[in-house]
Amino acid sequence: MEQFQFLFTPVKVGRLILQNRIMSTGHMTTFVENRLPNDRLIAYHEERAKGGAGLIVMEANAVHPTAYFTADTLVAYTDEIIPYYQKLADAVHKYGTKMFVQLFHPGREVNESGPPGFPGVSPSATPTARFKNMPKELEVEEIEEIIEGYASAARRVKQGGLDGVELVASHGYLFNQFWSPNINFRDDQYGGDFAGRMRFTIEVIQRVREVVGDDFVVGMRLSGDDLADQGLATDEILQICEYIEETVGLDYFNVTGGHSSIETAAVFIAPPAPVEPGVFAPVAGQFKSRLNTPVFMNLRVNDPVIADKILASGQADVVGMTRALICDPHMPNKASQGKTEEIRYCIGCNQACIGHMEIGLPISCIQNPVTGRELQYAQMPKAEKAKKVLVVGGGPAGMKCAVIAAQRGHEVHLYEKEAELGGLVRTAIKAPNRSEFGDLILNLQRELKFAGVHVRLQAPVDEAVVQELNPDAIVMAVGGVPYFPQIGGIDQENVYSVEAVLGGQADPGQRVVVYDWNGDWAGVGVAEFLADQGKEVEIVSGTHVVAGKLQRYLRDVYLGNLYTKRVKMTPHYRIQEINGSSILFYNMFNYEPYQIDDVDGIVLATGYIQRTDLYYNLKKLGKEIHRIGDCLAPRTAENAILEGLELAARL
Fold this sequence. Notes:
Elements: E1 11-13, E2 16-18, E3 22-24, E4 32-33, E5 36-37, H1 39-50, E6 55-62, E7 74-75, H2 82-93, E8 98-104, E9 121-122, E10 136-137, H3 140-159, E11 164-168, H4 174-179, H5 194-212, E12 217-223, H6 234-247, E13 252-256, H7 263-266, H8 281-290, E14 295-297, H9 304-312, E15 318-320, H10 322-327, H11 331-336, H12 354-358, H13 374-377, E16 388-392, H14 396-407, E17 411-415, H15 425-428, H16 439-451, E18 454-456, H17 463-469, E19 473-476, E20 480-482, E21 495-497, H18 498-502, E22 511-516, H19 521-531, E23 536-541, H20 552-564, E24 568-571, E25 573-579, E26 582-587, E27 593-596, E28 601-605, E29 608-610, H21 613-619, E30 624-627, H22 637-650
Parallel strand pairs: 3-6, 3-15, 6-7, 6-8, 8-11, 9-10, 11-12, 12-13, 13-14, 14-15, 16-17, 16-19, 17-18, 19-30, 21-28, 22-23, 22-28, 23-24
Antiparallel strand pairs: 1-2, 4-5, 20-29, 25-26, 26-27
Helix pairs in contact: 1-2, 3-5, 6-8, 14-16, 14-22, 19-20
């Protein structure tokens, strides 16, 4: 297409030709059974190949029994995995997509969800701050075993009919640990000077190449900057790449950023909004300008227009668009066919992708619940009988339900009493750094348009409206209202909801307490909002960690902002009573009181209660009627959108 001068041109990597320059980078999915891929994993990758991705890099595959990262890390050190590689090859190759496999060893960076009894290992006994692991120092014979593990794993990938392997040296994992003089204190052949610290890497590449030959792609993923105090900077990583290029050579370098060992650097493993899209393109550009080897780059590239500009500027040869493909696996085909308005754009929320993986759940996407459920929903059949469907409420649940129902052939009417669609999302985007979350509504609005849903705004529904429209089925998606706990003083004039404050209907004064019972975005969002106005803010949270419900990288961004803006954070307390300008809390562990005096206002982020009056009134009409989203039980946007899809699939 004329709009994309570079993105859809083929590119040569080693002896392989990629049909375009869009890559799905390696990312853990938790589609794993007994540490082997399951049918969900194959269907997941097949959908992205069908959608037009040029290259898919399969997630981390452990090369050695010590290479545990989580309990769901796939294993490449057993021949049992070869048939699964063959199934993956068959699934993606029929669409012209190529697939590489990440060969992985985390070293000391062992996630807390990893299996018990397996210590991390590292060149030296140097601990990692984030995961609090003191690793075992590798013995020489163990290093030799791991080197052979990489070679054997690469052999299995080639036997399985896939197209290449990617050695994972990014984010402070094992290769990086050998490179770093701040971690590797060995005085044998695998430590000491620069060449000694590079020996492990060179020997791995040599052994892998001996096993797979020159006609098989061997690349490396690395952080272009560790962004950590004791990590490696861009110039040091460039020196390493130049040394590899001159000594043994690779078919590509895949440049990402960040480091697993500390919170601020780990954010860049999967940077959430508001981190700028394409944030690491300039760093990748430095590698592209100094190396003769093809350079891939990734990190928050959610738009094919941005990807094409990165390629046009000469900053990379291939662009990773992983979360964009999680959100819309058919983005490449839509872009190449000039259908950019139909693309569902990733909003960088991290909630259901890496957020799921971190708690051991299969990944998905809050906007696209089909992700991870391809076996159930990738092929959505038309309804056996077309119905007239009335959807009441234009928040995420109602909008998604309307879209899917219309796509299945129903005549769908969406009524929203307000002047805009969006529901609670319209409140969320008023908090600092949350504007991109509003793209969820823009995406759904476009989907409504293309699905042919009849949308009416400023259209409240009552029994008369239903009688006039005479639908076959009614879907209630009217959401909820702020819930206030039944405690003393709750009716005081200085008690406010998050919605009232963010919406500008209330000013809680100069000295403000935010009480957050749930640990999600609302409490920290309104606290930052108030701090930006120069107010003195304390957030008291009835959770183990302030913002504890948020995905860790998003949480860490929020906490960093709150510390910078001098917001006092007090976890472990639940509210007991409001008495004028004094608020009494109690400790959730030992019930000790905690009182804050001289407060101008308190903002309650205490969740929602469902709206049910209209549902029960319409239920009396005897028609088919359903409830979804917060109208059923207030939870997250992810729950709401999933319920909208699931109900529409049954109608």
